[in-house]
Specification:
The chain has 199 residues and is mainly alpha-helical. The protein has a single domain, classed as AhpD-like (Up-down Bundle), CATH 1.20.1290. Helix content is 63%, strand content 0%. It has 10 helices and no strands. The N and C termini lie close together (10 Å).
Amino acid sequence: MAFISTILENQAAVDVKQMYDKNLETLGYIPNYSKVFSHRPKVMEAWTNLVGSIRSNMDTRRYELVTLAAARALNSSYCMLAHGSILSKQFYSPAQLALIAKDFNAADLTPAEMRMMSFAEKIVGDATSITQADINELQKIGFSDAEIFDITTTATARCFFSKTLDALGAEPDEIYLSLEEELREILTIGRPITGQSKG
């Protein structure tokens, strides 16, 4: 489940139990990412507040597409599966999402969506490679400076979360086995689901 020990629900102190109880209330299970953060629940709280503040400025589809692009560049199965699931439930068929996950430039997305996803991938790959020209291209296609900030922080925040989970060996949750098989295989680009992960 992880490379480090995690705190069991029946052994959790108050702050960890509160985190787990919130998971159970909203998700119906305790995800492996929460278990990894069980040693430092205040860090999870800070992450939740950070990502919530970023998301509050974006519509869901834009946030999820940028996150998917960043997660793909990070080879993060966990985040690809989690955010791919949201996109599949709310916006795309499994076949449409499979195309987006494989090559969003060849999928049926708007030019603005393809540009923001490319920008997110470039940030993850090498943020120092971003130039004024990249920003100008986003502005030309209609993004405001505030929206460019939102896209940027969505991608950079994902680096923190995905890298933390992968470095500590957090496996994608068993719940993602319910995804359509072909889509699940496309979204699983790094650490696989073992079927032992549901908490």
